[in-house]
Amino acid sequence: MKEQLKEMIQAQIKKSFVPEYQSKATDEQALGIMLSQYFEWDGLALLKVAYSALEDANFHTENRTIEQMIKKLEGEVA
Fold first, then answer.
1. CA–CA separation, 16 vs 24, rounded Å?
2. Where are the domains of the chain?
3. First to last CA, the chain
4. Model pLDDT for residues 14-40, shown as the tens digit of each residue
């Protein structure tokens, strides 16, 4: 799957960035665009994806901030 994702990222870079910037565009930028479009610019869904990714990478302390952002957007925190 990783190789397929890499191919998709490269295709996104070619689609989203002008030729002069394509060599400077990062995988993170391209994947961010892909996820934003996939989730139809739903910030809450994107935060949940970030939360899940960071949880998998054991960034539990940092995830507390994202968890609060999610709760705020869901209306659980004033």
1. 12
2. 2-38, 43-73
3. 40
4. 999 999 999 999 999 999 999 999 999
